[in-house]
Amino acid sequence: MAKISAGIVTYNDFEEAKLAADTVLQYCPEAALYMIDNASADGTGEKLQTALQGRAKVICLPENIGFGKGHNTVIPMLESDYHFVLNPDIQVNSDVLQQMCAWMDDHPEVVMATPQLFFPDGRKQNLPRRVPSFLGLLARQVPGFSPLQRFDRHYTMLDEDLSLPHEIQFCTGSFFCMRTEVFCKMGGFDPGYFMYVEDADITRKAMQYGKVFLLPQFGAVHAWHRNPSRDAKHFTMQLGSMMRYFKRWGFRIY
249, 186, 177: which is closest to 213 by C-alpha? Predict the structure, then answer.
């Protein structure tokens, strides 16, 4: 059986993070789970240490270093075959972690994969993406604006049949599995991103080692707090991340 590790970065979200940790440990008790707290002002890290009682390793960082850098802190500790990056708003309701690892065991050409994610009410989330483009990203920020809908459909792969395992170019940072050897070799996330678009960047890096897949036969619940679409500060932060991404990987209109 594959050795599994998982990381969850938290910031002022104790109740949600505790639920995420509980569900992961319920269905995958053998996983080495790391809870990385980004200096939460509400004491989330200390509360997790008390609540989880040694079932997970809680790392309380002295300052908020961002999403990707937070996940990178566990790299020296990893001794697994597969490492999962999970959001604190994820809830696992099956043995999806073991199932994904078993599938990847049978498909050695795949280095990174994500399951189908669902809203808490059961609605399917359209998270697989093609390589980011300016119009695709713009369409995400103005949902329902008809002139951009065709770009949104193309970017979110709604013009493809995603009912079976499918190769993708942008794997959501909300929930993905990567071969630990590859995650460590690439140094994890680019530390230059504080938040947003770092998942597109790490997917591009992973594609240099192998294939990236959506595995719709496996699923999990994702609350999906979409701050960039309703908060000017977060939207501005996302724009800066987009510029960093395009500078590294090249600008695409469509």
Answer: 177
What percentage of the chain reaches a pLDDT higher than 70? 90
DSSP 8-state class, residue 146: G
Q: Alpha-carbon distance 157 to 20, whole Å? A: 28
CA 70/CA 98 separation, integer angstroms: 24
| DSSP state for residue 110 in the 8-state scheme | E
Answer for the pair 183, 209: CB distance below 8 angstroms, yes or no: no
Q: Which of 78, 18, 92 is nearest to 52 (CA)?
A: 18
Nearest C-alpha neighbor of 157 from the set 175, 165, 169, 174: 169
The residue count for the chain: 254
Task: Output the six-digit token pair for 100.
Answer: 């994904």
Q: Is the pLDDT of residue 51 over 50?
A: yes
Prediction pTM value: 0.91
Distance (Å) of CA 217 to CA 24, 114, 165, 242:
18, 10, 8, 31
Phi, psi of 70 (to 5 degrees): -60, -45
Query: What 3-state DSSP class applies to 134?
Result: helix
- Axis crossing angle, helix 232-249 with helix 198-206, rounded to the nearest 10: 20
Token pair 């043995």: residue? 95
Average pLDDT of the chain, as a whole number: 90
Residue 56 backbone zone (phi > 0: left; psi -120 to 50: alpha; other: beta)? beta
Q: Does residue 183 contact residue 113 with C-beta atoms inside 8 Å? A: no
Distances (CA, A) of 157 to 127, 130, 131, 213, 234: 9, 7, 10, 13, 25
Backbone angles phi, psi at 75, to 5 degrees: -55, -45
